[in-house]
Design a protein that fits this description.
This protein has 224 residues and is an alpha/beta fold. 35% of the residues lie in helices and 20% in strands. The longest helix has 19 residues, at 200-218.
Amino acid sequence: MRIDIISVLPELMESAFAHSIIKRAIDNNLVEIKLHNLRDYSEDKHRRVDDYAFSGEAGMVIRIEPVYKIIRILQSERTYDEIIYTSPDGTLLNQQEANKLSTLNNIIILCGHYKGIDHRIREHLITKEISIGNYVLSGGEIPAAVITDALVRLIPGALGDESSALSDSFQDDLLSPPVYTRPAEFNGWKVPEILLSGNPAAIDQWKFEQSVERTRRLRPDLLE
């Protein structure tokens, strides 16, 4: 998979992709992540990529020309399955959406910034808009990093144990059950006996019941 991320502040994401699971996936050639500075495609002598809104409201808007230029250059090199825009009014990212994205070959993520982007970009170039929550951030760099992390960890081989992702929260619309490790007792606090029983069927049943109970208590909206 190849992920091209377009941003006015690409350095904000460098650290996010230089460690842990994503770095291992890159090192193992499972994913290629390229950061592009939108200012490099500006024809303005000061490398500006924004301008005032025609509506007269406060805030600057990303211009269409540099975005069009970089997207067309990338498309001349390969075919992209999705061109994603990080937007507070996009589809809310969930585990099912991450699962779908992880099966694609090539995607572009355009990070929003300032007041937003010229709407013609959204009308004619963007194929999918994604939000990571019902709030507004200063830019789309953090959402782009979140989207990338959510899908890269699902690429076969990215995790040391691929079955680990299958038991993550939200994979089956349930929260994950509690997890414990050694010691079996600490300060009088004990690990549930069932987990020490060595009975896989009973343990699986306990884990399922715990998932349902925790989801009902903490995130009842998922059960709807």
